[in-house]
Design a protein that fits this description.
Layout lengths: L4 H12 L8 H9 L4 E4 L8 H9 L3 E5 L3 H13 L7 E4 L5 H12 L5 E4 L1 H4 L2 H8 L3 E6 L19 H8 L4 E5 L4 H11 L5 E4 L7 E7 L3 H11 L4 E5 L3 H13 L4 E4 L5 H12 L5 E4 L12 E6 L6 H8 L9 E7 L1 H11 L4 H19 L4 H8 L13 H4 L4 E3 L1 H13 L6 H9 L4 H5 L16 H13 L3 E4 L5 E4 L1 H8 L5 E3 L28 H18 L3 H4 L2 H10 L4 H5 L5 H22 L16 H13 L4 H8 L3 H13 L7 H7 L2 H13 L5 H8 L6 H16 L1
Parallel strand pairs: 1-6, 1-7, 2-4, 2-5, 3-4, 5-6, 8-13, 9-11, 9-12, 10-11, 12-13
Antiparallel strand pairs: 14-17, 15-16
Helix pairs in contact: 2-3, 14-15, 19-21, 23-25, 23-27, 28-30, 29-30, 30-34, 32-34, 33-34
Length: 732
């Protein structure tokens, strides 16, 4: 049935209060209302849900919306009800409902009140639901998050692949499939599986010009995240982590650092998940820390940043998750922390899966690595992945475009690369090509006799990083393309043939190497003890050392008893000017701050004012690492006079680990008495000798103590234990 334009506009205004459609929404809705199969690929924020919600409200019967997440369904149903006075206009049917609630849903559908019924694919497979839906007048099926159908998609769901036969059993009605991310491969997979090769395809541009993309090396991640969030205070954001454990840890760390953050993952009970989601939507929480279970279809337009603590497994996943930022078209910052070690971890997770699945997973990871390490415009790489050409060289809204790297000429090398792809008959991936060019005769190269080719070793004057970079940028420039159907085999384009005939200048920027970055961010933010990387502000450091000397002299204790060097060094970086800030400096804690801190914060405050220093936002990250639990355990067991060996055994640690933790405890100002343990180990006379040494020592160095007292007479462990006893008794 053909609808007049005014009828559609009127319906849009009546049901949703909008005056005009976005992009291709109007054509899509017309296609659905005309009873045709429809396939919509539209980026997050493009208005996908309108494409099935409005035709559902305008059609006879009930539209069945298949949706992957309970949280998503609730969010969508609440939104529809918000536009309508009739509560029964939209319902969801899933495992979270009681029998009574299910009865209400069925009753409303039978009475013709319900225009939209959201169901999980698992609920749709239940015999009782199939039987019920056969008796219902269904207007059409909408399959949201349709990429879940594809094993090539970022969120492969086996239940989604069984939808077509169930839909056929319920009744032949049109289907609209919708997704925010789909490469041509995924698109074909979805259409084939749903038996809708005839569907009208509507594909919106994937360019989200308002989103800023940045990749950062994975170093001090928690500290960097807290700093970022505090620089964007009051703004809504989502932080994605790959594991539930990391979600809990990050959420807890943010909370103790004064940020309103909540965790969200499948391990939480449904009630908690729903509460956390509602608090985020109602702005009672600023940040949600989540696994990928969060956010699908969550209609919060003002998410201002999306941070990835871990790199996602695929670019589809990355695009989908970053797409939750700036859905209102305003600012959206997308920051991802990346280390190649994380990729290696993800590869290990794939071991044990079927070979075909491993190959697919590896190919998706290769694309992710290429995106993370590239030095060209991130927007260009991302859109190219989804089959869209981005003509601008500089988008002005990604880290690479705002801070471009110098270009180097690579004309000759590109010719050699194209010839090498030809030489291996366009049947190999980039990794294999790099080995051939470098002259690395690994097993695969030997098997194919590629070590006998003229091009073998011809590129040995360049690094593997150079060739990997060149391959990526040659693909972007259209000289090569990856055959995605065949796991990314490199093929030559007509443009490459033309280039060989008439070479022109071809410049590339070398990609960034992230291989040396830290993947582990479980830093000890709260402990004390030795360590430290030197003072950031040497002038202040000298002033603090002089003050420490004066304070120590007045109290008749060695300077290190007041504050150790690492603590002073951290003060020169973070400039603490309040007692709370000082308490969080490594090796200080509440006890030392209150006992010695006042003159130090006064000196730093004056120094900051005199020199007009802009202090860092985050000051220092408060620790919630499990060490607080260990600390309590150790203090309690020392009170009970348990041996260090006994505590170490109980906690699965070594005695040296316990000693390190005790050093941290006393360094931050807590008093403990391990005399009972030391008395069993060291006789009284030797104890006195070490104690007397530390009274006059310039530093608390164990090495200096052993040199002075004699390495034949004392072990390192004995000196460390005596130092703990000394600092605890004299300093704390």
């Amino acid at each position: 049935m053909l609808l007049a334009e005014s009828t559609l506009q009127e319906a849009l205004n009546k049901y949703f209060g909008y005056d005009q459609f976005k992009g291709e929404q109007e054509q899509i809705i017309r296609n659905v209302l005309d009873g045709n199969n429809t396939f919509v690929i539209m980026p997050t924020g493009g208005g996908k849900s309108m494409c099935y919600q409005l035709p559902a409200l305008m059609s006879e019967g009930t539209a069945i919306v298949i949706s992957p997440l309970i949280a998503l369904m609730k969010n969508q149903v609440d939104a529809i009800r918000g536009f309508n006075t009739e509560e029964g206009i939209a319902h969801f049917l899933n495992s979270s409902l009681t029998k009574t609630e299910i009865q209400v849903v069925r009753s409303d559908i039978k009475a013709g009140k319900t225009k939209l019924l959201y169901v999980a694919p698992e609920s749709l497979t239940k015999e009782e639901n199939i039987k019920f839906l056969k008796e219902v007048n269904i207007s059409f099926f909408a399959i949201d998050e349709a990429h879940c159908i594809s094993e090539w998609g970022h969120d492969f769901r086996p239940e989604y692949r069984r939808l077509r036969p169930i839909i056929d059993e319920i009744g032949k009605v049109p289907i609209i499939a919708l997704t925010a991310t789909a490469t041509e491969k995924v698109q074909g997979d979805i259409q084939k599986n749903l038996g809708m090769m005839d569907a009208a395809l509507f594909k919106a541009s994937f360019n989200r010009a308002n989103l800023y993309y940045e990749i950062r090396p994975k170093q001090n991640v928690l500290k960097e995240i807290i700093k970022f969030v505090k620089q964007n205070v009051g703004k809504s954001g989502v932080i994605y982590c790959l594991s539930r454990k990391k979600v809990e840890e990050v959420a807890e760390t943010l909370t103790v650092n004064g940020i309103r953050a909540l965790p969200y993952h499948a391990g939480l009970d449904p009630g908690t998940r729903a509460t956390h989601q509602d608090k985020f939507l109602m702005e009672e929480a600023d940040v949600i820390v989540a696994t990928i279970a969060f956010g699908m279809g969550i209609d919060k337009p003002d998410v201002r940043f999306v941070i990835h603590h871990d790199i996602p497994k695929s670019l589809e996943g990355y695009y989908q998750e970053t797409g939750r930022a700036g859905r209102d078209g305003r600012e959206g910052k997308c920051v991802t922390f990346y280390s190649f070690k994380d990729i290696e971890k993800l590869e290990k997770f794939m071991k044990g899966k079927p070979v075909a699945e491993q190959e697919i997973g590896k190919q998706l990871l290769t694309e992710t690595v290429g995106y993370a390490e590239t030095s060209v415009c991130r927007r260009k790489v991302l859109l190219n992945y989804f089959g869209e050409k981005y003509e601008q060289e500089n988008c002005g809204n990604c880290d690479n475009c705002l801070h471009p790297k110098p270009l180097i000429e690579a004309q000759d090398e590109l010719i050699l690369l194209i010839e090498s792809v030809k030489a291996v008959k366009e049947k190999h991936q980039g990794e294999h090509l790099v080995n051939v060019l470098l002259g690395v005769a690994d097993q695969q190269v030997k098997t194919y006799k590629h070590d006998k080719l003229d091009v073998f070793g011809e590129g040995a004057d360049q690094s593997d990083r150079f060739w990997t970079t060149l391959i990526r940028q040659a693909v972007l420039a259209g000289f090569l393309h990856k055959d995605i159907d065949n796991y990314g085999l490199l093929k030559i384009s007509d443009k490459a043939e033309e280039f060989i005939e008439n070479p022109v200048s071809f410049k590339i920027a070398l990609d960034t190497s992230f291989e040396d970055t830290e993947s582990d961010d479980d830093e000890d933010f709260g402990g004390g003890g030795a360590g430290g990387g030197g003072a950031a502000d040497t002038q202040l450091f000298e002033m603090l050392k002089n003050l420490r000397k004066t304070v120590a002299k007045n109290l008749n204790v060695p300077p290190f008893v007041v504050f150790q060097d690492p603590s002073l060094e951290e003060m020169t970086t973070n400039y603490p000017i309040t007692m709370d800030e000082l308490k969080n400096i490594t090796g200080v804690g509440t006890g030392k701050a209150s006992k010695y801190g006042k003159p130090f914060i006064e000196l730093i405050k004056k120094y900051v004012e005199d020199n007009e220093i802009e202090r860092p936002v985050d000051i220092v990250v408060k620790s919630v690492v499990n060490k607080s639990g260990l600390k309590v355990y150790l203090i309690q067991n020392i009170d009970r006079k348990i041996s260090l060996e006994g505590m170490a055994k109980a906690k699965g640690l070594q005695v040296k680990d316990i000693v390190s933790e005790l050093e941290s405890i006393v360094a931050s100002g807590t008093k403990i008495d391990i005399g009972y343990y030391i008395n069993e180990l060291i006789d009284e006379e030797r104890q006195d000798e070490v104690f007397d040494y530390f009274k006059t020592a310039e530093t608390d160095s164990v090495e200096d103590a052993i040199n002075e007292l004699g390495e034949d007479d004392y072990t390192e462990e004995e000196i460390r234990l005596m130092r703990i006893k000394f600092i605890s008794e004299v300093g704390n």
